[in-house]
């Protein structure tokens, strides 16, 4: 695998900190020439003679000119992020200095790193598997407590461990089938079909759990589209403002003034709700309003959760029943919120809509807004997914897992129809292939070795 990659022997260099001016910037080099290159620019000490994981203070000098006073951190491979020799130069944060140091290292033989190349090398050197490498990117991009936690869990290998266990089970299955093939003349039965069924069914359950977690993973990573809908004057803009605690949307007494869809983001318990304020839902002869209504319908279909807000003083219980029916027919994940309870009182509202699953609030008075936030979280966290479980956040993993599941289904169908072992083995290999795609493992490893390590034929 390594041999096919070009440029792998190069020593790469890049600024590891954010672009722009900061107090300090870090320039990272990785590769066989990292030490010689830095040695030629760092007269204070011979870096080759220093221990790994140590810091060294001195000047970076190039063509007789001092560029900066820096601190150099040494990581000798394989005990480094990439598995190669790595040097990090902490310099002053001026973009000019950074650029000068980079140019000096390039002059001495380094090459500018491509995006993700340090992590790619870590993967190629077996420091990380593919899912862990991907989670490094997720971790860097994480913008909420929840997305940070899942990326961190994945980087530590939680997901890989689960996949590894699964792979072992499938290899066992494959091994059993192939043993039968090898010994078919002798009519040896290594595995009764009941055991094979159990193996496949167990694997299917685990994979289904992972596949199901993607909905949650997606919510955690990308946030959830949240539409606040309801008739004009229900108080949608007021609620939006209350939730966001700022006044971006237009609040007006004139019906239907909120014509645009405005997106705002709310962070509740570490989950990002992308709030879409929409024009009111109603029949209208006004063209602009009709476009607004159409947009609203589209948004509702796209939304992960829909907050239906209504004025408790205006609508009847029958209206709400009808609304519920509509949402249920369209398979919408909805939350019913009765607004303006301050007018006639909360008790009166409760009595009026007795038995209906409504959360009563006053957007204007900020009554029960915390409950509304809690309910929103519950709505998107619904299901038996536990945040401690492995959660799939990556669409590539999700797609591959669906392929694994399909292959396993084919194995099961194959067994039901009494397919010969070699055909079953094909489907199993297909599922192993897709699993291997996720972690980046080579899938056609020597299965026979595995058989003999687990089974003793002579006994
Ligand atoms: P939208 O058309 O659904 O966006 O509704 P608005 O947010 O523009 O609100 C319409 C009117 O209802 C405004 O005059 C708001 O001040 C008023 N309103 C909103 N929430 C409440 C509430 O909780 N209680 C009362 N009494 N009035 C409210």
From TrEMBL:
Binding site for K(+): 233, 252, 254, 257
Role noted for this protein: Exhibits a very high intrinsic GTPase hydrolysis rate. Involved in the addition of a carboxymethylaminomethyl (cmnm) group at the wobble position (U34) of certain tRNAs, forming tRNA-cmnm(5)s(2)U34.
Protein name: tRNA modification GTPase MnmE
Species assigned in the record: Chitinophaga flava
Binding site residues for Mg(2+): 237, 258
Family: Belongs to the TRAFAC class TrmE-Era-EngA-EngB-Septin-like GTPase superfamily. TrmE GTPase family.
Gene Ontology BP terms: tRNA methylation; tRNA wobble uridine modification
Binding site for GTP: 233-238, 252-258, 277-280, 362-364
CDD domains according to UniProt: trmE, TrmE_N
Cofactor: K(+)
Subunit text: Homodimer. Heterotetramer of two MnmE and two MnmG subunits.
SUPFAM superfamilies reported in the protein's UniProt record: P-loop containing nucleoside triphosphate hydrolases (SSF52540), TrmE connector domain (SSF116878)
Keyword hit for Electron transport: no
Gene that this sequence comes from: mnmE
Principal location: cytoplasm
């Amino acid at each position: 695998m390594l041999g096919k990659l070009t440029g792998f022997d190069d020593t790469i260099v890049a600024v590891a900190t954010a672009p722009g001016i900061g107090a300090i910037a870090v320039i990272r080099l990785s590769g066989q020439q990292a030490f010689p290159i830095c040695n030629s620019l760092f007269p204070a000490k011979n870096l080759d003679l220093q221990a790994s994981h140590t810091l060294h203070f001195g000047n970076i000098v190039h063509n007789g000119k001092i560029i900066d006073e820096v601190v150099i951190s040494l990581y000798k491979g394989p005990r480094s992020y990439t598995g190669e020799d790595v040097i990090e130069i902490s310099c002053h944060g001026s973009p000019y200095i950074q650029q000068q140091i980079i140019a000096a290292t390039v002059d001495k033989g380094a090459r500018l790193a491509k995006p993700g190349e340090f992590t790619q090398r870590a993967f190629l050197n077996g420091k990380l598997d593919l899912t862990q490498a991907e989670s490094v990117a997720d971790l860097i991009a994480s913008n909420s407590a929840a997305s940070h936690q899942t990326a961190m869990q994945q980087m530590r290998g939680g997901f890989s461990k689960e996949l590894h266990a699964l792979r072992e089970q499938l290899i066992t299955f494959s091994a059993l089938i192939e043993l039968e093939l090898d010994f078919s003349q002798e009519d040896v039965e290594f595995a009764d079909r009941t055991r094979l069924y159990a193996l496949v069914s167990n694997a299917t359950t685990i994979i289904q759990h992972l596949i199901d977690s993607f909905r949650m993973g997606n919510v955690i990573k990308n946030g959830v589209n949240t539409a606040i809908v309801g008739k004009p004057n229900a108080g949608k803009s007021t609620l939006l403002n209350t939730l966001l605690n700022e006044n971006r949307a237009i609040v007006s007494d004139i019906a239907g003034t909120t014509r645009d869809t405005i997106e705002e983001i709310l962070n509740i318990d570490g989950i990002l709700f992308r709030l879409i304020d929409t024009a009111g839902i109603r029949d209208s002869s006004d063209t602009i309003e009709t476009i607004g209504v159409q947009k609203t319908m589209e948004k509702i279909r796209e939304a992960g959760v829909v907050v239906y807000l209504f004025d408790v003083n205006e609508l009847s219980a029958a209206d709400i029943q009808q609304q519920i029916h509509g949402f249920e027919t369209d398979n919408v994940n909805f939350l019913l919120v009765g607004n303006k309870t301050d007018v006639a009182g909360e008790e009166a509202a409760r009595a009026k809509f007795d038995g209906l699953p409504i959360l009563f609030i006053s957007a204007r008075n900020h009554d029960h807004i915390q409950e509304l936030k809690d309910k929103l979280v519950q709505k998107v966290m619904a299901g038996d997914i536990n945040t401690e479980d492995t959660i799939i956040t990556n669409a590539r993993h999700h797609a591959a897992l669906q392929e694994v599941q399909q292959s396993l289904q084919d194995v099961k169908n194959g067994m039901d129809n009494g397919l010969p072992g070699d055909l079953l083995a094909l489907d199993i290999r297909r599922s192993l292939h897709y699993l291997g795609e996720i972690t980046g493992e080579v899938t056609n490893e020597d299965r026979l070795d595995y058989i003999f390590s687990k089974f003793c034929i002579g006994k």
